[in-house]
TrEMBL record:
Residues covered by the Major facilitator superfamily (MFS) profile domain: 11-412
Alphabetically ordered keywords of this record: Membrane, Transmembrane, Transmembrane helix, Transport
Pfam families: MFS_1 (PF07690)
Entry's localization field: Membrane
PROSITE patterns: MFS
Name assigned to this protein: MFS transporter
Membrane spanning stretches: 49-65, 77-96, 135-153, 165-184, 213-232, 252-272, 284-303, 309-334, 346-369, 398-417
Domain of life: Bacteria
Xref: Gene3D superfamilies: MFS general substrate transporter like domains
Membrane topology: Multi-pass membrane protein
CDD domains per record: MFS_spinster_like
Amino acid sequence: MTEQQRNARFALAVLFGVNLMNFFDRQIAGALGEPIRVEFGLNDTQLGLLATVFTLVYACVGVPLGRLTDSWLRTRLIAIGVTFWSLLTAASGLAWNYTSFLLTRIGVGIGEASCAPAGQSLIGDLYPPEKRARAMAVFMLGLPFGLFGAYMLSGVIGQAWGWRAAFFVACVPGLILAALALFIKEPPRGALEARTSLAMPGSPYRAVLRIKTMWWIVLSGLLFNFFTYAVNVFQTPFLQRFHELGLKEANTISAVSLGLTGVIGLLLGGWLGDRLRTRANGRVLVGAVALLLAAPCVLLAVQQPKGGVVMFTVLMSVSGALWFAYYSTVYAAIQDIVPPNLRGTAVSLYFFAMYVLGASFGSTIMGALSDYFAHRAMIDAGATEMADVFRASGLHSAMYVIPALLLLCSGSLFGAAKTIAADMRAMTTQTR
């Protein structure tokens, strides 16, 4: 094994750990949403707003950090970012009211904005195109394992020692990973490409936005993150309210269906994406078909009657495995159509759009829909006070928006499949 290969494997292992803690620390608030809501006296709209503010800050800070990724040491940027968000995660456990908790989550969002552009840019320079989807799949394994860990550990720790303790526990592994990131050897940009850069006058942002497929991928990203953030914030409260499960039991189901089963989708999606790379649109077609199949699974899961927890878990697990294929296929496709010297910029623009226009609205709109339907249920029952049964009914009705969004996201990837071949040729030949 060459030194370059050893460095690539070590870097991928560290980046996997960094991405795991990225989503672990991000999802703790969702896993413990119900006890946090009760302690601070929040409604569902306020609960969803926590994720909205987080994602807006994450997206806005990510754009300049993405540009910095293309010109500065990516390993150092990751180390600084992980250190910052880990410390702010611990500070979340010290919050004394809704505002102070919100401010600490903003700090976490600022730190985490460094992870995706720098991490994906590094992978693009550490692995050749024919192995990139599988490498991206390993990096993105941090997502399901991070969600799994957040739900499982938060449920156990929150039930045993209170919700604040979970935020303190999350800080330590992040600081260790920040130190390890400094031992990654920075690879030269574009060394594994036929062409190392695309000389283009004017703004680098405009250069990225001239790539037609990026528009389809951005559209898919905002739809995808709209529903994933809505599900991640509200599935556990839904299980607690509608199916009347305890905090630990509800988080265990979310850990499996929203986290662990995603490992299958990521690995299988990455494998299929690389196998089908003989077709220019092979990768995005894998993602499109996977999302198309996931939509009816979610619909049937939401339709399960009160107490139908087993079938809900099975159906959401299947859908989760399917929709996770999006990450390993679409993220690798971005590397195929964007030249190496613009990849950090491209990822940051993609993340900005999908978080500002998608993820930031997902949890808040889901919360607002839940409150609206809960109020309707209260009025229809002739009641004058909001009771738990109305909150359960409201959230149940709001969950039906998810399968519709899955279908729209699938359609956007089918659109990308029509333009990607031309964009791949343009990136290779520099004719754009």
